[in-house]
Write a structure and sequence with these properties.
The chain is mainly alpha-helical. It has two domains: 166 residues, Orthogonal Bundle (Helix Hairpins); 76 residues, no CATH class. Helix content is 76%, strand content 5%. It is built from five helices and four strands; from the N terminus they run αααββαββα. The chain has a four-stranded mixed β-sheet. β1 and β2 form a beta hairpin. The longest helix has 82 residues. It is rod-shaped, with a radius of gyration of 42 Å. The structure holds zinc ion (ZN). Zinc ion binds next to loops.
Length: 249
């Protein structure tokens, strides 16, 4: 093969690896972000459990306060008992006292229920905190692995760029420019084989005469008459076992 053509083929192989590396590198920030998002959901659970505990404690305080104020009213009302003059007043006062006593009773029941619900809420909070701590450890590990992978890819990319430079130095400027342009506009395939007269890039056929020229000329580089890709001759046998099987079948 023409040495410059060989360098072009090599250049394209390197560019393919560079493109793949860049895709992998580009995916890493998203992976790290996904890990951090995972952490947010654990943090939300902790916040929710925290809020539940605070809610129980607030209800506890409110109920205690209401018990105290109701007991205060009860004491005041009982204090009035000695001052009543009529039976009606006495009955009214007794009824008010009974109501207040009943109110204190139900408030105390409520306070007990609230108190009993606190351990479960606190347990839930401790569990979510534990979950968050474990998730933090896992996320940290995963983020660390993603970052290490990114560094490894970055290193490979740097060495490929050096390799590319040396391959490109064996290609003259006009061919390099054509290669760069076609690599961009022809979907990452600027150099391709021609097999049995057919360009493997665009599947169009060259005339037999031009095909022989391409096949037999050792000192020239050819381009496809249809798509403009740089082409090189490849024997059908070299395509691989699959086409052999097809032929046999
Ligand atoms: Zn073509």
């Amino acid at each position: 093969m023409h040495p410059e053509l060989r360098a072009l083929v090599e250049l394209q192989a390197i560019d393919d690896r560079i493109a793949a590396l860049k895709r992998e590198l580009g995916a890493i920030p998203g992976r790290i972000e996904a890990e951090n998002r995972l952490l947010t959901s654990f943090e939300d659970s902790v916040a929710e459990a925290q809020k539940a505990v605070e809610g129980v404690k607030k209800r506890q305080r409110d109920t205690e306060r209401e018990i105290q104020s109701t007991e205060q009213r009860l004491r005041e009302t009982r204090g009035k008992q000695a001052l009543v003059k009529t039976n009606d007043e006495f009955r009214a006062l007794n009824s008010e006292i009974a109501q207040l006593e009943s109110r204190v009773g139900s408030l105390e029941d409520a306070a007990l229920e609230i108190m009993e619900s606190l351990p479960a809420a606190e347990k839930r909070l401790a569990e979510t905190k534990g979950g968050l701590d474990r998730a933090k450890g896992q996320v940290q590990g995963a983020v660390g692995r993603h970052k290490a992978e990114g560094e490894r890819l970055e290193k490979s990319l740097q060495s490929l760029l050096v390799e590319r430079q040396s391959a490109a130095s064996a290609v003259s400027r006009p061919w390099q420019e054509r290669y760069d342009k076609f690599y961009k506009i022809r979907g990452g395939l600027a150099v391709c084989p021609i097999i049995d007269q057919t360009c493997q890039g665009c599947r169009m056929s060259e005339t037999l005469q031009r095909f022989f020229e391409i096949r037999d000329s050792g000192d020239a580089i050819f381009t496809c008459s249809s798509c403009g890709r740089i082409i090189f001759y490849k024997e059908r046998d070299a395509v691989g076992a699959a086409s052999h099987l097809e032929e046999a079948g």
